[in-house]
């Protein structure tokens, strides 16, 4: 990079950083403002008198802690099922040759191209017939089917980088296929597994459409619906909405920061094949 190019690149990166961080700054600033200052015009960039009243109110509201707990249960369940089923399916696609293998892989890839809004109706009918409508388990299963194709593709690409000779050597030592998967393959694909778990967790955590259509009881609704309900017909408590939004983004943000190294390794490893 030449001396003339460096300032231009730094300027572009600085503008991109400002563009991405400005909304978060506004959310934090608005959540610390009193109710009347939030709707002041012209708006203040920072509260004249910062207060955490909005945070106290959302936790005191009936239902918000339940929304938070439901989001944790739903997201963790989706991540667990998606990664557990995904790693077995990915190992099978990577190591075994069987009739219809390419067709199944094509179907998995094609399923990712379908808009979620087209699938809500069929899932509603299936869950209703199975007695799983308006249950956390039904929502977890529905979200798992959305994240599973990505998990399979991600983990298959990672397992493909591991030579099959390692499997054969382990089986010559007396290991079964399951032992090969759990004791040989999984330790080597851990970055990819962490990436798939994180992807499934974040997708389920931020879901609105599926929860809105498949969950009716307030006691089972996730946080995204709880924030949505804060928009009243005649009044909108913007400070509380911003505080709830910040609380809702805290878990995914911390998760991403803690697992960033594994995420980069996982996405990079899944794209490399021998």
UniProtKB/TrEMBL annotation:
Q: Where in the cell is it found?
A: Cell membrane
**Signal sequence region:** none
The record, for Pfam families, names: BPD_transp_1
- Transmembrane annotation, as ranges: 7-28, 66-90, 102-124, 136-159, 180-205, 238-259
Is NADP one of the keywords UniProt gives this record? no
Q: Where is the ABC transmembrane type-1 domain?
A: 68-259
Tell me one GO biological process term.
transmembrane transport
From what superkingdom does this record's organism come?
Bacteria
Provide the membrane topology annotation.
Multi-pass membrane protein
InterPro entries (alphabetical): BP-dep_ABC_trans_perm, MetI-like, MetI-like_sf
Which keywords does this Swiss-Prot/TrEMBL entry list?
Cell membrane, Membrane, Transmembrane, Transmembrane helix, Transport
Q: Which GO terms describe its cellular component?
A: plasma membrane
The UniProt similarity line reads:
Belongs to the binding-protein-dependent transport system permease family.
PANTHER family reported in the protein's UniProt record:
INNER MEMBRANE ABC TRANSPORTER PERMEASE PROTEIN YCJP (PTHR32243:SF18), MALTOSE TRANSPORT SYSTEM PERMEASE-RELATED (PTHR32243)
Supply the name of the protein.
ABC transmembrane type-1 domain-containing protein
Species this chain originates from: Methylobacterium variabile
Write the lineage as a comma-separated list: Bacteria, Pseudomonadati, Pseudomonadota, Alphaproteobacteria, Hyphomicrobiales
